[in-house]
Amino acid sequence: MKKASIVSIGNELLNGQTVDTNTTYLSGQLLTIGVPVVSSYTIGDDMDAIVRAFNLASNDANIVIATGGLGPTDDDLTRQGFANFLGTELELQNELLDKIQNFFAKRNLQMSERNKIQAYIPAGARPLANPLGTAPGIMAEAEDKLIVALPGVPSEMKQMFAESVLPELQRFAGTQAVVVRKLRCFGTGESNIAELLGSLMQRGRNPLINCTVEYGVITLHIIATAEDKNKARQMAEKKEKSLRNTLGELVYGTGEQTLAEVVGEKLARQKMTIAVAESCTGGTLAKLLTDIPGASRYFTHGWVTYSNTAKTTELGVPADLIEKYGAVSEQVAQAMACGARKKARTDFAIGITGIAGPAGATEQKPIGLVYITVDSDDGCNTKHCLFPHDRQFIRLRAAQTALNMLRLELNI
Amino acid sequence: MKKASIVSIGNELLNGQTVDTNTTYLSGQLLTIGVPVVSSYTIGDDMDAIVRAFNLASNDANIVIATGGLGPTDDDLTRQGFANFLGTELELQNELLDKIQNFFAKRNLQMSERNKIQAYIPAGARPLANPLGTAPGIMAEAEDKLIVALPGVPSEMKQMFAESVLPELQRFAGTQAVVVRKLRCFGTGESNIAELLGSLMQRGRNPLINCTVEYGVITLHIIATAEDKNKARQMAEKKEKSLRNTLGELVYGTGEQTLAEVVGEKLARQKMTIAVAESCTGGTLAKLLTDIPGASRYFTHGWVTYSNTAKTTELGVPADLIEKYGAVSEQVAQAMACGARKKARTDFAIGITGIAGPAGATEQKPIGLVYITVDSDDGCNTKHCLFPHDRQFIRLRAAQTALNMLRLELNI
């Protein structure tokens, strides 16, 4: 079986400036074609260190992917390091030089003499096109190993990996076809999902289920491997169906969909509208809704009624209601939602009030207590939650929980 | 000079699930005591790979910091790998066992038999206290090398590194005293800052100036090294003064301060209030302001008037003004700010309207065009900007630029 090792090159990765996200991306991608990453080396812009890392990585694995150090400046040493590792010299590729010159000409920019170095690659290697920049990638096969160098800029690296490297890797690794589908879930914890899925998540299964969590959204990766793409797709689809049966309304979407996206799509499709009235979330819910391009089709009004006065004057929440039950109460969440829907004349309105902390808690009302109301023609639906962790977590989880309540009302 | 190498242990780092932020944190911290990180190794939960990485790292450097693999489950192999690397056995430390038992008892939890393994460390090594969890760290000195293993959970790792490891490292590295001060800037690009600072940013300088950028906020790290702390502090302070002179009002704060934080502090101190009226930013500005604990002292009202109707009914923006100049115009930004201030009766109000894209652009009004008004007793101050990149970037930069305008009005 083929294995891979990753080499990340750049001083910025070792002085606290830059978090290396390339390794995570590449190892996730390699997993989808059934190639496990067994090691990863990070070094600075230093020739000896680069050659040593190439050697270590190619001892660990048959596939080596290096990123970074392909720029035009003096501290970009990956080209030369690659050549030294192969035991060859750098050679000028006239075709590459033309491409780089064209890149600048098209943009009416003067090409610096320095950029010429980017047209050199190790003898025997071949260049990989970079549609987004001037640094070409480099690929070489040597002694049953496939060695690839890509730019470190994540956007350039990702596009080149997907377009030029992945197909080559599939050929080289001779792996079976792999299909990955993602199911996005909200409304329970990771451990509960793990319990519901039981042995499905065990290593070695096919399809294999991987689980990742980010701010309450649980993503299940269904990874199906088979002789051909069609068979793998069928396996993944079958598994997806059975997972949907098991998880029921916990599943809200697929792929990279967010809660705001699925809710927004359905509202737009049904030509329905929404307004929001926020206190403790302070605009977070409006922001999540308007993160989606085209949100103006359904989102019309948002209020951040942070003070009690604002709740009363803008949304008509009776001052004596606030006095009687407190600003953080079921009654006020409902009055905020109803007031917003009435003023905005929307199909739905959401009201949120709670205690995000760190101050403001009382014995009856601890930090993390949040009341959320969804108001519609069907009346008010109110939920109270107690979120753990800190201010940021509480605010984001409250806004997402509100979107999830709306999703369930929309029967998504 | 002492150098460091980092070893990151865990399957999740090599299967696309987890981005390794520990290496960035540790290398940044080590830089502050004058210890450069020369390499970093990432491997899965595999005994041979762990021992090999410890060997490689200790060949590269005198200081090795490993993270991860100290949990109680079968795939946590760092303890044993550490012992194998040292050529010793694991030993039960009764004191550690008491601590772990207390950790569970205090929380009224049953301690699993598995957690006992966390009380074992390599013979000759010493444990490092973990105030946040059950996994103690491990530190050993061998052949002029200092080897440290810490848990992989970032919050636990960071606290243990700061409290238990950093002081030891300073002793071990025998470095001179290092003082780091951070200056936070907003209002220009990185290249312009670099030009203003000139040779100050060159490697080898003392104090050294490092520069990082995140969404328009530029942080200058002033790193001063001297025989003692006092001298280093004086050098850093002197350099800070001269940087402030050079950069003038581009500097808005120090340390980890955000724009919303410095603006909020000044508003609270002056007992002044603010309201915001947002269109294209869709709640982002309100969210940034209310990210700060205690924002209710000065932030009272926010409107997200996404539809034209909302602008008219909620903020009193004349419908014919919108018709004449368009919703994205100087006139409408002003009317939004003035309307918000009038309704909320605040000292300041901000109005934002623009085109965040990807749709909605016209020939006269491209994607990224944003009008921002700050209204106060001094009248309306309006700015128009053309932000590059995508929807998220445009929205965040617009909200930050609004905060920056307010900061300048507040003479911060």
Brief account:
The structure is a homodimer of 412-residue chains. With 412 residues, the first copy, chain A, is α/β, with parallel strands linked by helices.
Can you give a write-up of this model?
- Two copies of one chain form a homodimer.
- Chain A is of the alpha/beta class and 412 residues long.
- Chain A folds into three domains: 4-173, MoaB/Mog-like domain (Molybdenum Cofactor Biosythetic Enzyme, Chain A), CATH 3.40.980.10; 177-254, Alpha-Beta Plaits, CATH 3.30.70.2860; 259-409, Maf protein (Alpha-Beta Complex).
- Chain A is built from 13 helices and 17 strands.
- Chain A has helices spanning 22-32, 47-60, 78-86, 94-106, 154-173, 190-197, 229-247, 259-269, 284-290, 308-315, 319-325, 330-344, 391-409; strands spanning 4-9, 37-43, 63-67, 90-92, 120-122, 126-128, 137-142, 145-150, 177-185, 208-214, 217-226, 251-254, 274-278, 299-305, 348-354, 369-376, 379-386.
- In chain A, strands 2-1-3-8-7-6 form a six-stranded mixed β-sheet, sandwiched between helices. Chain A has a five-stranded mixed β-sheet with strand order 14-13-15-16-17. A four-stranded antiparallel β-sheet of chain A has the order 10-11-9-12.
- In chain A, helix 9 links the parallel strand 13 and strand 14.
- In chain A, helix 1 (22-32) runs parallel beside helix 5 (154-173).
- The longest helix of chain A has 20 residues, at 154-173.
- At the A-B interface, helix 1, strand 2, helix 2, helix 9 and strand 14 of A face helix 1, strand 2, helix 2, helix 9 and strand 14 of B.
